[in-house]
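Design request, tokens follow.
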């Protein structure tokens, strides 16, 4: 049986990185939730964009990905579920994060289940998930889970990330939503192609028929 695949993209710049830490927690929680369903293996991969920064910049200029970047793009586009995590800089996603998704074909994530998450210094940046990340993936026609996860510096204390803490609750809720979408999309039939649209009546013809009536 083909395993379910979860790919987490981390745009953290430091080592260690709170962005990578959040990506790992979300990926592990989603793996556990996805494994709770019908017996099926689950594979997890985390892609660190900092390791691909130069390749991404070259791709932006030349239009051609390096082998390493091409392989990362293929992993993202083939995944059953995507977790996208960025640090928040100047009230939005990082330039590295945006550039990576800019070099992916704008139709490649159509219908893909996506969990969005971010890290920042204070909770007041959390709205960037809704005014920046969610519209980005909506434009790419991905299916974004309802719960977005933001982790401020104070969330990494025992009150936020410990058992029963607020961050833990958000992580588990978002992971359950993503796992549910993954199970559904993996069992769904293939999307209809352009040939299936032959019977659709163009809007102009429908409008003309209404006027004639």
């Amino acid at each position: 049986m083909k395993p379910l695949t979860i790919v987490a993209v981390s745009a953290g710049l430091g080592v260690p990185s709170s962005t990578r830490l959040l990506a790992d927690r979300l990926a592990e929680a989603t793996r556990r939730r996805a494994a709770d369903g019908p017996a099926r293996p689950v594979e997890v991969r985390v892609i660190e964009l900092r390791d691909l920064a130069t390749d991404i910049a070259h791709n932006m200029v030349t239009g051609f990905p390096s082998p390493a970047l091409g392989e990362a793009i293929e992993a993202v586009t083939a995944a059953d579920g995507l977790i996208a995590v960025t640090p928040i800089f100047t009230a939005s996603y990082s330039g590295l994060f945006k550039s990576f998704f800019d070099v992916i074909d704008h139709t490649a994530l159509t219908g893909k289940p996506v969990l969005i998450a971010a890290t920042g210094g204070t909770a007041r940046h959390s709205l960037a998930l809704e005014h920046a990340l969610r519209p980005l993936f909506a434009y790419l026609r991905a299916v974004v889970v309802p719960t977005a996860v933001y982790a401020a510096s104070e969330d990494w204390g025992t009150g936020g990330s410990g058992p029963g803490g607020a961050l833990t609750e958000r992580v588990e809720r978002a992971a359950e939503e993503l796992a549910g979408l993954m199970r559904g999309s993996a069992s769904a039939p293939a999307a209809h192609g352009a040939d299936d649209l032959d019977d659709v009546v163009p809007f102009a013809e429908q409008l003309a028929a209404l006027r004639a009536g």
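Comment from the thread starter after seeing the answer: thanks! The longest strand covers residues 81-89.
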